[in-house]
């Protein structure tokens, strides 16, 4: 029953939030007035949050379903387009067959009589005459129209026609050096922009038997063109563009990763372009298939021609015949090898990187331990171009400009395929560069809180978590690869640690935080750094090396503060006992001195709330021990002498003041009180400082021992007011 009421309440709340006149301000106001207390508001907040999470899940589910439907629809459209295109070619072939029927009947009609022959010519001139005329004009193309190379002239005539045409195109002399190349079709076209269908320029297309040359018009020089682009036919796809007035008579050329749209003069020329492009591509494919089959076909034993006998030739001059070594052939006629370049293009376009690399591995495995005749070299050249394109796409996937969300695992796909392609070094470099950008972005997105320690906790969590995830992903991706990659990772980790220390120092040391706050922040950083030891990565020494200057500066600054405060108290010293007024204050002072390590402070307390020590000496003791405790939290071996020298300088200020006061004071009672304070410094404070320093550092300090073992104050000059210990 309660669950039913909860469901009804949730549905009522959903309808209320989905209503058209919903206003958040009024809703919150009414809810605050109607609620009995904080618990009702919390429960209502939980219901709204649960509803928001449910809505988010439904939205994600709908987006995923729509995305899958979109992919399936796109795939079906692609299949339908391919089938329609094949159907168009079948209809075109049927039309050509029907048009050629009258020509086959023409000889029979001529034998029947002159009148029938005349009728046959009139019936066949509609299609065949046009084809014949086009075949004749194909050798003398006009710059303003379209022409097709038909039957008639031989290879020499075709080459001569190509040479004549290409002499009118600037920047394509290298095309004339290709043997066996001839012109098939050419004509004027107008290029349009693919996105907005805006007219770009007038061009002239030259279709050769193995490539398509696109040249732009030169307005100043009539009948001349400038070279624009050259596209091999085996990497070219032709798509018919549906007429959409005023945009009509257009077709699209697809060359990965770009595409271009051209417009013909009329529908007839557009149809000719589509037909001749497909026919030429088909002829080129058939030609290469035959060449590969011939190359793969086994040859018979070489025929030995009998040597003509020469009666005047000396038999001793006969040289042994060198047997001809037959080159081993490689079978490239299999269907998957023939379609491999096109399949690689499809995989790259569909971002199926694993499928593309699988095809390459299959080819390399097949061609392993096989010779490299010209057909194999040609195939490898075509495949290498696809490998270059695939590598560029994978490099782009790992570029820092891409989205950095998803963590290190988001790069695993591209990295693994680059490693399979033999690009291990490049994969390592790109992976580390991507992660460096991600870490930098994560640090920059942190809000600088008012509390320094809170910000440092967040900074350490973000940085060291990212570093740990990167190290684990690196170990997963590059396991079994060259060990040089691990050296690159260590160098990268040091660089990333420098980025972290910059942000750390700017917030902790540049803002002049207290020594206790700085010590706590450094302790937090060390604890996070020690977590990296779980994966065998110890960067603590790098943190020490990068922070040593900042910590030295902090110790020096705090030492100067203590010295100035001690000198200021010394200047106002009256050498009187402390009166704490209340037992509570006295008890608090005893606890403070006990926490400082002075366990025998009871013997320096008097009746009621009096302390038989000077306020200056007590304050100096608390401040010195506090400095020592915080400095030991920051301690590492590189700071040993800095800390020791700072302690000696601080202690000397108090000792010199006591020495000066003893020499200058004339009152016997005050002089005895000063000696009591000096005894407290030498016999109680200095041993505690020495003991605590040795516990924190791990070894005794000779300078502190010498300072403690001094049994009397040594004056440099009895007449002077200065002294040293």
UniProtKB/TrEMBL annotation:
Transmembrane segments: none annotated. It comes from the Eukaryota. Keywords: Cell projection, Cytoplasm, Exocytosis, Protein transport, Transport. Residues 120-129 have a biased composition (Gly residues). It holds the Pfam family VPS51_Exo84_N. It is found in: Cell projection, Growth cone; Cytoplasm, Perinuclear region. CDD domains: PH_RalBD_exo84. Residues 116-159, 285-321 are annotated as: Disordered. Residues 312-321 have a biased composition (Acidic residues). GO terms for molecular function: phosphatidylinositol binding; small GTPase binding. GO terms for cellular component: exocyst; growth cone; late endosome; perinuclear region of cytoplasm. GO terms for biological process: endosome organization; exocytosis; extracellular matrix disassembly; Golgi to plasma membrane transport; protein transport. SUPFAM superfamilies: Cullin repeat-like, PH domain-like. Gene3D superfamilies: Exo84p, C-terminal helical domain, Exo84p, N-terminal helical domain, Pleckstrin-homology domain (PH domain)/Phosphotyrosine-binding domain (PTB). SMART domains: PH. Belongs to the EXO84 family. The exocyst complex is composed of EXOC1, EXOC2, EXOC3, EXOC4, EXOC5, EXOC6, EXOC7 and EXOC8. Interacts (via PH domain) with GTP-bound RALA and RALB. Interacts with SH3BP1; required for the localization of both SH3BP1 and the exocyst to the leading edge of migrating cells. This is Exocyst complex component 8. The lineage of its organism: Eukaryota, Metazoa, Chordata, Craniata, Vertebrata.
């Amino acid at each position: 029953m309660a669950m039913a009421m909860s469901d009804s309440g949730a549905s009522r709340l959903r309808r209320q939030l989905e209503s058209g006149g919903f206003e958040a301000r009024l809703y919150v106001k009414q809810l605050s007035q109607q609620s009995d207390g904080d618990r009702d508001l919390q429960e209502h907040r939980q219901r709204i949050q649960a509803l928001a999470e449910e809505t988010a899940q439904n939205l994600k589910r709908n987006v995923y379903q729509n995305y899958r439907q979109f992919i399936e629809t796109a795939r079906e459209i692609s299949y339908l387009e391919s089938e329609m295109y094949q159907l168009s070619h079948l209809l075109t072939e049927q039309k050509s067959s029907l048009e050629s029927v009258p020509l086959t009947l023409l000889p029979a009609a001529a034998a029947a009589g002159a009148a029938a022959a005349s009728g046959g010519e009139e019936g066949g001139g509609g299609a065949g005459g046009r084809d014949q005329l086009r075949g004749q004009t194909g050798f003398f193309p006009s710059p303003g129209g379209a022409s097709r190379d038909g039957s008639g002239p031989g290879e020499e005539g075709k080459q001569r026609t190509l040479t004549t045409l290409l002499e009118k195109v600037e920047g394509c002399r290298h095309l004339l050096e290709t043997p066996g190349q001839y012109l098939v079709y050419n004509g004027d076209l107008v290029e349009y922009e693919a996105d907005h269908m805006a007219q770009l320029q007038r061009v002239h297309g030259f279709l050769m038997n193995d490539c398509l040359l696109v040249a732009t018009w030169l307005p100043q020089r009539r009948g001349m063109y400038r070279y624009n682009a050259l596209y091999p036919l085996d990497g070219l796809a032709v798509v018919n563009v549906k007429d959409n007035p005023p945009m009509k008579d257009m077709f699209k050329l697809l060359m990965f990763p770009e595409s271009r749209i051209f417009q013909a003069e009329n529908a007839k020329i557009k149809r000719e372009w589509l037909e001749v492009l497909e026919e030429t591509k088909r002829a080129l494919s058939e030609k290469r298939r035959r060449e590969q089959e011939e190359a793969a076909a086994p040859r018979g034993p070489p025929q030995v021609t009998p040597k003509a006998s020469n009666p005047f030739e000396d038999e001793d001059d006969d040289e042994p015949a060198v047997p001809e070594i037959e080159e081993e052939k490689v079978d490239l006629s299999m269907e998957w090898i023939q379609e491999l370049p096109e399949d690689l293009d499809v995989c790259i376009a569909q971002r199926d990187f694993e499928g593309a690399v699988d095809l390459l591995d299959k080819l390399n495995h097949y061609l392993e331990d096989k010779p490299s005749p010209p057909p194999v070299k040609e195939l490898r050249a075509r495949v290498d171009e696809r490998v270059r394109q695939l590598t560029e796409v994978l490099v782009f996937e790992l570029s820092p400009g891409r989205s950095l969300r998803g963590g290190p695992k988001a790069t695993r796909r591209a990295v693994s395929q680059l490693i399979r392609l033999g690009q291990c070094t490049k994969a390592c470099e790109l992976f580390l560069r991507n992660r460096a950008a991600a870490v930098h972005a994560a640090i920059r997105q942190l809000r600088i809180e008012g509390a320094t320690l809170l910000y440092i906790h967040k900074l350490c969590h973000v940085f060291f978590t990212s570093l740990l995830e990167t190290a684990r992903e690196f170990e997963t991706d590059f396991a079994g690869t060259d060990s040089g990659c691990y050296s690159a990772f260590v160098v990268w980790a040091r660089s990333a640690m420098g980025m972290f220390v910059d942000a750390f120092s700017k917030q902790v040391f540049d803002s002049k935080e207290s020594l206790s706050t700085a010590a706590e922040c450094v302790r937090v950083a060390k604890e996070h750094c020690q977590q990296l030891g779980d994966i065998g990565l110890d960067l603590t020494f790098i943190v020490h090396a990068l922070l040593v200057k900042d910590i030295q500066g902090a110790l020096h600054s705090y030492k100067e503060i203590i010295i100035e405060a001690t000198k200021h108290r010394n200047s106002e010293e009256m050498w009187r006992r402390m009166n704490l007024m209340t037992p509570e204050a006295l008890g608090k002072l005893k606890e403070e001195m006990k926490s400082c390590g002075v366990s025998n402070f009871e013997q320096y307390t008097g009746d009621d709330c009096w302390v038989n020590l000077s306020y200056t000496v007590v304050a100096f003791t608390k401040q010195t021990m506090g400095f020592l405790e915080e400095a030991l939290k920051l301690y590492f071996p590189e700071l040993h002498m800095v800390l020791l020298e700072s302690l000696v300088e601080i202690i000397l200020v108090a000792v010199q003041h006591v020495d000066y006061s003893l020499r200058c004071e004339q009152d016997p009672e005050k002089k005895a009180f000063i000696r009591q304070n000096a005894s407290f410094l030498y016999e109680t404070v200095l041993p505690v400082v020495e003991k605590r320093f040795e516990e924190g550092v791990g070894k005794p300090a000779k300078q502190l021992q010498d300072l403690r073992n001094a049994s009397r104050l040594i004056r440099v000059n009895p007449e002077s007011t200065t002294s040293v210990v």
